[in-house]
Design a protein that fits this description.
- By secondary structure, the chain is mainly alpha-helical.
- The chain has helices spanning 2-44, 47-54, 64-89, 99-124, 128-152, 157-179, 191-201, 205-226, 228-241, 246-260, 270-298, 307-332, 338-361, 363-395.
- It has 14 helices and no strands.
- The chain is globular and about 60 Å long.
């Protein structure tokens, strides 16, 4: 549910920052909060996922303090990566940062990595509900701070980046308070423990990076080709259309648990998926009709150019029902790598289509590129599930396929 809440929170923050910063300022903000997760996945070395294995291993579980010490080291690497990115990469997109914006970006990146690593430590010990609640608290804090900034008339990017950072700090504090009751938190550097975590985590980097890039690389390509103002306008269309993901994302979490626990089978969610698809179509149609009025009322007349790409992207979101729901079934069956494989296909398609379609068609071209990529992802995930089910009588739910062997 936390992922669904993050989509809603992103929509609220998008509306507020667009009103206050305008297209160019909103574009710079989006580029910063888009790039930081990319560098985080690389600098994190997959250690957060490895922690879910090693912290609670039946034999020789790793002390939490060893994991914490490595997380601090990796956060410094993340800060350095954000600094280099802000100085060298972001100017290519037309986003030349002030010293204040660069400092805010560096600190935001470091705290984002710590937040995610410590959150996964909490998940490793089985406190998933508490982790979700703490994420929700962080989202509420961010929205509250953004509202406060609007009240003060702030019109620069850096205060809004600091608000994002503050929400991460709140989550870090909450997570630390919970973990301190589970195990000693004294950071202790152990080279053997660090090597153990890194060896396990590094292979997951391509998978994680491909999934994040698939849904966010279009912002960077728009920036390179059209500049920050275009990114600001396109991000409004993309963020609003992504609100339709709340339903399939929420459903997918229940589906994963039901299938993984053996309480339901792969074919038990056809009706739920169909209802989710119909609900998305109805909401999408309403959004299509209301888009011109809604964009002007919520974001302002400066963002009227977002109407057309928004309408196109609403179509793309329907394919996400298949990606999330069928992907959750596959994950529950043990095919945890299925979503990553599909996302890599989507990444290749959206990147190529963006480069081809944006120059002649502008933001509408970027939106149609997403339709093509998301449509292929939904169709491919559905095909993978159908193929798996056709093999089920022979392989069975406990066969090699269910165990995650590709």
């Amino acid at each position: 549910m936390s992922r669904a809440l993050s989509v809603v929170a992103a929509g609220v923050v998008a509306a507020l920052t667009a009103r206050q910063l305008g297209p160019s300022g909103r574009g710079v903000y989006v580029l910063l909060v888009t790039v930081a997760p990319f560098t985080m996945i690389i600098c994190g070395l997959g250690v957060n996922l490895a922690a879910r294995i090693h912290l609670v291993a039946p034999q020789n579980p790793m002390p939490l303090g060893h994991y914490f010490s490595l997380s601090f080291v990796l956060s410094l690497a993340q800060a350095a990566a954000c600094l280099l990115t802000g100085l060298l990469l972001l100017p290519v997109t037309g986003a030349t940062l002030t010293l204040g914006e660069l400092a805010a970006f560096v600190v935001m990146g470091a705290t984002l990595l710590l937040r995610n690593m410590w959150l996964d430590a909490l998940n490793a010990y089985g406190f998933t509900a508490r982790a979700a609640a703490q994420e929700a608290a962080a989202f509420v804090v961010q929205v509250g701070l953004v509202v406060a900034l609007l009240a003060t008339g702030a019109d620069e990017v850096s205060p809004f980046i600091w608000a994002f950072t503050a929400s991460s700090v709140v989550q870090i504090v909450l997570t630390t308070a919970t973990l301190s009751r589970l195990a000693p938190l004294r950071p202790r550097w152990r080279r053997e423990s660090a090597a153990r975590l890194i060896r396990t985590g590094v292979p997951s980097i391509p998978s994680g990076l491909s999934q994040v890039l698939t849904f966010r690389v279009d912002r960077l390509i728009v920036g390179v080709i059209m500049g920050p103002a275009a990114v600001g306008i396109y991000s409004v269309a993309a963020t609003v259309s992504e609100l339709l993901r709340v339903l399939p994302m929420a459903l997918s979490q229940s589906v994963f648990y039901q299938v993984a626990s053996g309480k339901s089978g792969p074919g038990d969610f056809r009706r739920a998926r169909t209802l989710c698809l119909l609900a998305g179509a109805v909401l999408g149609l309403a959004g299509f009709v209301a888009a011109p009025v809604a964009v002007r009322a919520v974001f302002g007349t400066e963002f009227e150019a977002a109407v057309l790409p928004l309408r196109v992207l609403l179509l793309a979101e329907l394919a996400m029902v298949y990606f999330y729901v069928d992907g959750a079934v596959m994950g529950g069956l043990g095919r945890l790598g299925a979503a990553a494989k599909v996302a890599m296909v989507g990444l290749a398609l959206v990147a190529v289509a963006d480069v081809v379609l944006i120059p002649p068609f502008g933001l509408a071209g970027a939106a149609w590129a997403s339709v093509m990529a998301y449509g292929a992802m939904g169709a491919l995930m559905h095909r993978m599930l159908r193929k798996h089910r056709s093999l089920a009588p022979a392989a069975g739910p406990t066969g090699a396929d269910a165990g995650g062997v590709a």
